[in-house]
Write a structure and sequence with these properties.
- With 751 residues, this protein is an alpha+beta fold.
- The protein is globular and about 95 Å long.
- It starts with 14 loop residues before the first helix and ends with a helix.
């Protein structure tokens, strides 16, 4: 990580790893996509020999190559390939993908893991919805849809051709009323009309902005509405001829009536559909509906490429990397088929696979139950089906090889990064657990802190934690104070052990326990000498005390009010013991007996105790239970000139033992420079903890260590730096996400 002025500048640090992967690429024809560091596709091309063509991009282009090639070479960070059966097929696919993606140089087809489904309800007036995680029973479903087919835009386009969207009120009323009228009508099976059910139908807001087809106004009969839904179903099944014909006719009418804006929109929709028609790898003269599953297994990892063919055309391709360990392709297929088709509403009559399965009959029976009709699982050996299967398997194998090479490179980079951190920061061991902290706020409001975690160099998302800042008042901006609070609250989990802490106090002659009956008078005497403490309903049974010998040196009261509100109050520490956190320990000991619910505390504004109580686990709240507000109002009424008290709350759910927070980090990383590092160092000293600490300053992108006024020198190309930057960015992203959620919640509550 130490900077070496003689070190040659590296134009693109990704080229070395990419060369290793390219050396294992296929030599078949196909298309390739270059991606930038953000995963955006910046160039798409075709090749007779993919490996040879990819290699040609990895040598440093000379200046005569043109500025766009020089720029593209600097931005290359990743690549992907799709193998085809011929150069002609590669040409067709390249053309279609360029039309679809419009890449900057010649755009990432992101692997969208949250697949979408189209759900169409059954009934006189079907409703079309986009849903996640599968469709409901007794509905017509299509999907899952990947990023290659933007289903939202597709449905918007279909609405422009066959206006089907209807307001919720009209659909619910019509479906409910239609069923009732069918039952009561002497003409069984005659559905209700919009006019008969929505006689007072006023146009809805959706209808006025074009998002409702006018069912609520009675513009559409059930037959016409059903016909539109039928055409949309045909489109989703792959039959786009009705849509193309309707578009062409509507475009002609719009042009004749000089409605040029509508004609232009219809033209764009027509172009979009025609583009879908062009995007076919192969076409099957049999016009069968089938799924073709290509499976590849390599070193225990499994990759699936699934082609969805409808009406003889491949309308979609899914690429799925399966988790877990696969023993064989047959075993992986046997487990994949029921998992996938339990979510997919669109089960075709034929599923083509590459292996004979021992569980074939059982799987077919299960598929029949899922779809309501027979589905054949067939291992294709000849003809068009075998060719399509071979193509799917080839793509699955190529994608898996590329992924494995990528995983190997990532593992080596991670190992190198951790080793560099150990050596350059003089750490005692490899930092297996690294925690990074960030503070985020909006002009002093919604201040939050975040903790991102890397375990063995990889992001451990389940270990991330966020902190709502308790010690800052509304509008107060103090990143140092907020950071100190976050680290105190986080690190106290490493030092707060009530038994160990009580043992330490015992060595000083201090013991703890519930107050005794004979101490009632002494407790009352202490309370009466402190004007801030309430003497209302004093009962020794409510107190936890600290004693030195027979003398009470600290006390705190826990009560349950009439409305069941739990309250901690009357905290007092003998002056000789103040500043040693005896009061905090006593409060935690009292709170440890509370098994559930929330505990509140009231304190005077001038006492400046927010930070003190926040370290125990309390947080500032704007509102409080009615009984507590009445108490503080009564106190002010009895003591003229005093201000209403502040409220804080302790939530037992948020203060339970936490697996992440109870784990000690090997390295703490702060998003900030010298000031932030000094702040956190003070917290570490205060808690008597020795944990390596560094800060990453945004402006200088420099690394600061405790005691150094300047960033330490480092090589910006080192893997350790990339790891730290990723972790810092994760903390920043996590903090911003929480802040935005809080801001949204605050805005909603105001309305």
């Amino acid at each position: 990580m130490v900077y070496n002025p003689s070190m040659p500048s590296v134009e693109n640090e990704n080229i070395k790893d990419i060369k290793k992967r390219v050396s294992k690429a296929s030599e078949s024809p196909g298309i390739y996509k270059w991606m930038d560091k953000n995963g955006n596709v910046i160039y798409i091309g075709k090749a007779k020999n993919l490996r040879k063509r990819l290699k040609s991009y990895l040598t440093e282009p000379d200046k005569s190559a043109g500025p766009w090639k020089l720029m593209m070479h600097k931005q290359i960070a990743d690549f992907d390939v799709t193998v085809t059966n011929s150069e002609l097929e590669a040409l067709i696919l390249e053309t279609n993908l360029i039309k679809e993606n419009k890449p900057k140089y010649n755009v990432l087809m992101k692997d969208d893991k949250s697949y979408l489904y189209v759900q169409i309800s059954k009934g006189p007036y079907p409703q079309i919805e986009i849903v996640r995680k599968g469709v409901e029973p007794n509905t017509i479903g299509f999907g899952p849809f990947t990023g290659k087919m933007d289903i939202r835009k597709t449905l918007d386009m279909l609405h422009a051709i066959f206006p089907y969207k209807a307001c919720k009120k009209s659909l619910e009323t019509l479906n409910r009323g239609a069923v009732a009228e069918i039952r009561e009508s002497p003409l069984k099976g005659v559905a209700a009309t919009p006019e008969s059910l929505l006689r007072d139908g006023e146009p809805c807001l959706e209808e006025q902005i074009g998002e409702c087809c006018g069912l609520c106004k009675g513009k559409l009969t059930q037959e016409k509405y059903a016909d539109r839904i039928h055409n949309i179903i045909k489109f989703l099944k792959g039959d786009r001829k009705p849509a193309i014909a309707k578009l062409a006719e509507e475009m002609r009418k719009a042009a004749e009536n000089k409605k040029f804006e509508r004609a232009a929109k219809l033209r764009d929709a027509l172009t979009s559909i025609e583009k879908m028609e062009e995007q076919q790898l192969v076409s099957d003269a049999s016009s069968e509906d089938m799924d073709v599953i290509g499976m590849s297994v390599l070193n225990g990892k499994a990759q699936v490429v699934l082609f969805k063919q409808r009406s003889g055309k491949v309308i979609d391709e899914l690429s799925l990397t399966l988790a877990g360990q696969a023993e064989s392709e047959a075993q992986a297929l046997s487990q994949f088929i029921p998992q996938y088709y339990s979510e997919s509403p669109d089960i075709p009559p034929l599923i083509v696979i590459g292996k004979e399965l021992d569980e074939l009959q059982t799987l077919e029976e299960w598929l029949r139950e899922q779809s309501g009709r027979a589905t054949e699982l067939r291992a294709a050996e000849r003809g068009n089906k075998s060719k399509l299967l071979a193509l799917a398997e080839k793509n699955a194998h190529e994608k898996l090889k590329a992924l494995e090479t990528k995983w190997e490179a990532a593992a080596k980079n991670t190992e190198l990064a951790l080793t560099e951190l150990k050596e350059e920061l003089n750490l005692p061991d490899i930092p297996k657990r690294i925690e990074c902290y960030d503070i985020s706020h909006t002009s002093g409001t919604e201040t939050v802190g975040s903790m991102s975690v890397a375990k063995n160099g990889k992001a451990a998302n389940d270990q991330y934690r966020h902190f709502t800042i308790r010690s800052l008042k509304e509008g107060e901006i103090d990143d140092y104070k907020a950071l100190a609070e976050v680290l105190r609250r986080r690190l106290r989990y490493l030092v707060v052990n009530l038994k160990e802490e009580e043992t330490k106090w015992k060595t000083k002659g201090i013991t703890f326990g519930k107050a005794r009956k004979g101490e009632q008078e002494k407790i009352a005497e202490i309370i009466n000498t402190e004007p801030e403490l309430s003497d209302e309903d004093l009962d020794y049974k409510d107190f936890t005390v600290a004693r030195k010998g027979k003398d009470i040196v600290a006390l705190v009261r826990f009560i349950i009010n009439k409305d069941k509100t739990q309250e901690l109050k009357s905290l007092w520490v003998f002056p000789d013991f103040r500043g040693e956190k005896l009061g905090q320990f006593l409060s935690r000991k009292a709170l440890s007996k509370v098994k559930k619910g929330k505990v509140y505390i009231i304190f005077a504004p001038e006492s400046n105790l927010e930070e003190y109580y926040s370290e125990i686990g309390f947080r500032h709240i704007h509102d409080a239970p009615k009984i507590l507000k009445e108490k503080t109002q009564k106190f002010v009424d009895e003591h003229p000139g005093r201000e209403l008290g502040f409220f804080m709350m302790y939530d037992t759910r948020q203060n339970k033992t936490d697996v992440s927070l109870s784990s000690k980090p090997d390295l703490i990383v702060i998003d900030g420079g010298k000031g932030q590092v000094s702040t956190v160092m003070e917290v570490l000293k205060e808690l008597d903890l020795e944990i390596p600490l560094i800060g990453i300053a945004k402006k200088e992108e420099g690394i600061f260590i405790p005691g150094s006024p300047h960033p330490i020198p480092f090589n910006k190309e080192a893997q350790a730096v990339f790891l730290l930057m990723r972790l810092r960015n994760e903390a920043h992203r996590f903090a911003n996400r929480l802040r935005e959620k809080k801001a949204e919640k605050t805005m909603i509550s105001k309305f």
